[in-house]
Amino acid sequence: MKFKKYLAEFIGTAVLVLMGCGSAVFLGASAPGGHLAVAFAFGLSIVAMAYVIGNISGCHINPAVSLAMLIGKKLSPADFVGYVAAQLLGALAGAGILKFLASVYAPGDQTGALGSNGFGAVGMGGAIVVEIVLTFIFIFTILGVTSDASKSGVAGIVIGLTLTFVHIVGIPLTGTSVNPARSFGPALFTGGASLSQLWVFIVAPLLGAAAAAVVYQWISAKEA
After folding, report:
1. Cα Rg for the chain, rounded, in angstroms?
2. What residues contact residue 220 under an 8 Å CB cut-off, 6+ apart?
3. N or C, which end of the chain has less CB nearby within 10 Å?
4. Nearest 10 degrees: CA dihedral of 72, 41, 8, 186?
5. Regarding the domain with residue range 2-220, which homologous superfamily does it belong to in the CATH classification?
6. Domain boundaries, the chain
7. Total Cβ atoms within 10 A of residue 180
8. Which residue ranges in the chain fall short of pLDDT 70?
9. Rounded Cα–Cα distance for residues 162 and 157 (Å)
């Protein structure tokens, strides 16, 4: 039943936003060990959800992943629309819960940004490059590890660790998106610069995902 897959994507994305962005809100990347803690919070969220909903929906919880699967013909156009809608709604739910928690927890997010992404010191052009490259690496890894059934037992761990290391590099630069839904939820609740810059964190990850899908298809194709 398709509804179950969409519900799984909704829940998985909500968990990712709540736990990943929540770690940035309540701990902060600037705190001692905060940078690594935020990176691992995102990565561990993926690991947990991969082993919980992976057999139901594939645990995309990211429109960039769904786009790559659509390009690779592993997801129908109808399911792509359903997955992305569920992911965006899940991101809103996760960000909404996070906003409530931040409002009642005094030492929480002093900026009100809810872990949203931004250009930071790299500027718009730099943010576009960062997000395309990091998303390419993330999606390329997903496509590789999920293409071999013998790796299914470790796929969730590999994907989670990959998301962790792209966050380690990307947090100081853009806050790391590599996931339009993860950026969408916090930006809508935050507004201001987060919302005006959101388009970069939608377009760039999708471009990186499309590039990864095309390149992976080419290099993995069997020789005639």
Report:
1. 16
2. 143, 144, 147
3. C
4. -90
5. Glycerol uptake facilitator protein. (1.20.1080.10)
6. 2-220
7. 27
8. 29-32, 106-112, 223-224
9. 8
